[in-house]
Every structure is written in structure tokens, then in C-alpha cells.
Model the fold of this input.
Amino acid sequence: MNRSTLWLQPHPAESDPLARFFCLPHAGGGATAFHSWTAELPAIVQLCPVQLPGRETRLSETLYTQIDSLVDAIYLELQPWTNIPFAVYGHSMGALLAFELVRRLQCDGYPLPAWLFISGRCAPDVPCDTNLLHSLPDREFISELARLYGGISQEFMENEALREVFLPILRADVSVVESYQFREGEPLNCPITAFSGMSDASVSWDQLVGWKRQTNQRFAMQVLPGGHFYPQQPMLKTISTTLAELWSQLG
Done:
């Protein structure tokens, strides 16, 4: 199973991969955000970015606005790909999708990831300190996103054609996040590492530590210099080291 699908864009492997690393994007993001990561991962690990509808290669498709239906769809697509050891990563919106995906796998008795990596998102059982944003007028919506998360380029602010393409994607994805309602359940039977930027206005220390409640296995966290979109190199080094130690016997 090396060929791309609508939902998965696995990076080519010379032979059958020994392990997979599924990556779920932040709001407004697509699979291309992860394309450079292959060079940072152990050679036995196949990078498998998830491509959500309504962006990049799926730009003409209908956007999801509710988290439950989106998780349902991702779950059905990824299930057949969990036949070998795997790990899961998600940043911001992707962190919620990753967490609920793994919960679903556990609930239904399917294989679990060897590790769940969470980034840029408060623990799911505590409310994040933000007001509802997805229905705000355009200018206010963009302004609030920039204040909380950064990552809004000057080109986006000034280019009307660019905004026409990406604003609906951002609104839909923010709506996905804001539709989330935590449901009590058993802690995950897999380790979790949570990452955050030191100056990320959307995640406090206590909110990040709260991820510890969601696992009955090992928990680690790493706060790195930067904001919501902190430099990824130190995080990727941690992930790569963890995966190499997990799967050293597979090589």
C-alpha cells in the first residue's frame, strides 16, 4: 500500500515500508506542509500526510465544518493502513483530529499507534481561552487568527484573490475546531508527547500538561522557542529519535 489516495499521500518507498507516520495538518493546512519531513525520519518509516478535502489537490471538494464527521471519514480511510506499526502526529486542529482518531481505533479494538505526537493544542478536556471565531466578519476573523496563532502573511492580508481561496478553508477548519465537544472516555493505551511554542498565545503550560490525563502510558512534553508555528527542527529531532528507538528492531 504505497500508492496515494485522495486522503493519503504516502511518500514513495523503495520497498514495503516497515512502519508509517500519519500526519494531520493545522487549520488551513494541507499535505504539502509535511513533504520535507521525510529527510528527518528514520529510513524505515514511511511518511503519510493526510490530505483533507477542500485544499491543494482536493480544492474543488466540499469542506467539512463538523469534527465528528471529519474524524469518521479519516478513520475509515486510515484503518486499512494500520496493518504495520505506526505513529500519529497532529498540529493544532490536527491534534484534535489525531486524538479522536486514536480514540476511535482504541474503542473499536484496532491497532493503536506506537506513539501519539500532539502539537500546539490545549488538552481536549479543558476549554481553550478563545471566543468563537468562525462566524466573525472577514477583517475581524483574520485579525483574531493573527493575534492568537500568527502565521498570517502580509501577502494574504493584501491579496484579495488569495483570500477568496483560503478564507473559506480557514473558516471551515476553525468551525471544525469550534464544534469539538470532549466526551469522557478511557485514557489511551499509547504514549503521548505534547509540543508547544513558548510564546503560543493559544496554549498555556497547564493546558499542555493536561494531555497527561489522556494516556495511561508514558507522557512527555517539550516547550520550544517560538509561537504557535514554532521552528519545527527541534520537534522533528525529538520525533525522529523516539521513532528510531521504538522501531530499531524493525530495520
Summary: The chain has a mean pLDDT of 91. The longest strand covers residues 19-24. Helices lie at 67-78, 93-107, 138-149, 154-158, 160-178, 205-209, 233-246.
